[in-house]
Amino acid sequence: MTMRVVEFFHSLQGEGMLVGVPSVFVRVAGCPLRCRWCDTAYAWDYSAGKELALAQIVEEVGRWSCGHVVLTGGEPLVGEDLAVRPALAGLTRRLKAAGKHVTIETAGTLFVPDLACDLMSISPKLSNSALPENPQAGRPDPATLSRLIAAYPHQLKFVIESPGDIEEVCSLLDELPPVDPACVLLMPQARTRDQLLERSPMVVELCRKTGYRFCDRLHIWLWSDERGR
Ligand code: SF4
């Protein structure tokens, strides 16, 4: 079994419940969505990077003495045919067997069973992510999200661009089984420090009103939009 990987890098988790935790990032090639503000467009192409055997991926991860691994993308769950990536479950099992804590970053558009996943980090895409010519692309399906939430330890990260986005967040959450507010994170839409600085107070205010968590973006504060950090 193989998977295409665009890059490996060792950094700090920049977002979510594990912010600040040293982690090895495995950026899987390919994403069927085209988010307007995506900061990893170089990973959209399913032919990007290199095809690697699962054992090679685990070996590469093992170059760093680090207990946390983050499978990111691209979109780690979804293959080029829009079906589940066949090698993904096997990769997660090998990483667990190597003693790793496994986080998967996903938009949550597919349910995938049998993953050895310690944290399913789901970022459902709001309408602020869509390009004008494709307004429905990647819109969350409550039934799929409900299955992911029921199956795995999870966090829900929402990218907030303007105050009105919170209405979409709340109506989506209304369609899901109850989610612990501590697992719902609101994250300013930003690719640079300046954007993060500008939008953070607005998102902080939404957190104060709703009780959801503010999701800082440590990597942007540290490295702005530098790749592979
Ligand atoms: S789902 Fe993630 S990788 Fe894919 S386009 Fe959106 S932000 Fe980029």
Summarize the structure.
The chain is an alpha/beta fold and 229 residues long. It has helices at 54-61, 88-97, 142-151, 165-174, 193-210, 218-223, and strands at 2-12, 22-28, 50-53, 68-72, 101-106, 119-122, 154-160, 184-188, 213-214.
Describe the structure.
It is a single chain. The chain is α/β, with parallel strands linked by helices and 229 residues long. It has a domain at 2-159: Aldolase class I (TIM Barrel), CATH 3.20.20.70. Helix content is 27%, strand content 22%. It has 6 helices and 9 strands. A 9-stranded mixed beta sheet has the order 3-1-2-4-5-6-7-8-9. Helix 1 crosses helix 2. The longest helix is centred in the last third of the chain and has 18 residues, at 193-210. The radius of gyration is 17 Å and the shape is globular. The two termini are 28 Å apart. The mean pLDDT is 95. Iron/sulfur cluster (SF4) binds at residues 31, 33-35, 38, 40, 73-75, 107.
